[in-house]
Amino acid sequence: MSTRGQWGSRLGFIMAAAGSAVGLGNIWRFPYVTGQNGGGAFLFVYMLCVLLIGLPLIYNEIALGRLTGKNAVGAFRDSGGNRFWVITGAVLALCVSFFVLSYYSVIAGWTIGYIISEFTDFIKDFDTFISTAWYVVPLFALFMLVTVIIVLGGISGGIERASKLLMPLLFILVFAVMLRSLTLPGAMEGVKYYLTPDFSKITSKVILAALGQAFFSLSVGWGILITYGSYLPKNENIVTSGLWVAVMDTLVAVLAGFMIFPAVFAFGKDPAQGTALVFQVLPDVFNSIPSGGNIVGALFFLLLCVAALTSSISMIEVPASYLIDEKKWRRKNAAWVIGILAFIVGIPSALSGGASAFFTNMQIPFFGGTVKAGFFRHYGRHFWRTAHCNSSLYHQPVHRLGYGYPQTGR
Amino acid sequence: MDTRKLADEISQSAPFFNKTLIGNITPARLWIFFIRYVCPVVIGLVLLSTIGVL
Hints:
Number of strands of chain A: 3
Shape of chain A: globular
Strand content of chain B: under 5%
Largest interface: A-B, 27 and 25 residues
Distance between the termini of chain B: 30 Å
Number of helices of chain B: 2
Oligomer: heterodimer
Strand order of the largest sheet of chain A: 1-2-3
Radius of gyration of chain B: 15 Å
Shape of chain B: elongated
Order of helices and strands of chain A: HHHHHHHHHHHHHHHEEHEH
Number of helices of chain A: 17
Distance between the termini of chain A: 58 Å
Strand content of chain A: under 5%
Largest sheet of chain A: 3 strands, antiparallel
């Protein structure tokens, strides 16, 4: 009889599951969505959504995992439902985790670059940085390597141990950056923007946005909680453990607003910039802090990196546990294969300035120029025929590094 | 899978899940109601909203 890994303690499970839920989205997306949709009023609606919809789904997934004692695919199969939905659920759980991991790690790699840049100032501007393959690809590889190494350690020795270290570190960093941000002159304007309830903004669209944010944030529907639930001992209380996961996830998201908006308002920046807020506006804000700005900046990006890491290990674990349970692979082989495949799949994303441009604007360094190709528009045999060279798009960043491609394309 | 099996799994380590609140309503029954009827409707609405139908 094969022995499956188990969480060594309830705290280990809560930290790992909360770590999976707490990610980049909590830190940049939640404060932004809250500020845009009525501040405190949105917060109230969001908490209702977490309580009434998110929490029951968390319990559902953990219970399904623990009852079957299997990975997401095995759990769906054992659920005995309609074959179509079983296959759909299983395939979606595997694919969503794997593909999100492939581009999520690219963005997580950027955070490592920004940590280094706080002390070396090598990132001059965001666009140049993310379009420079020599920066983003190694950073992406480094992040993926760390993720694989943690997963290699197994459930209690790898994921649990890392989560027990990283989650408290994440909270310490959140409080450190939040304190500095709240003590900046003019910070209270940001707090007012964030929390002043404006119930006139609560429309059906905003309620749907709150629901979407709750699903996005709590990691429900990915198979992660099914997988983590399958490692939960029978005597552990699912109700209180699940509640802790939801509370910790919401807490980090709410505190992130106290970290970001006071700093943004203190320096007169526009709070409605989404991703750009984190990677373009905030570095300027931190650098403008008279004393220790680079340290606050480095702490902030370390916080982002830690949040991303606790999520990425759960994304590898879903397909890895499938290979271990169903295909009888060794954990070591499963983790390496998933990590390497996700890295390969993520390379076009890394080369196209992140996930947003992946399907429409892939740029590959190619014989002295770049091939720029719409991934779906030119899919299949038409891909090579219609791909066209555009050296100018790629020249600026490589010249800045001193490598210098020839001026002509292929 | 029958949601009652999952409710039993939850109550195995949380006995209060089967404790009566008001009348014959228990947390387990409330949870089953949300999982069977509320969540599918809400998830459907969010999906329709995501693809721009709503």
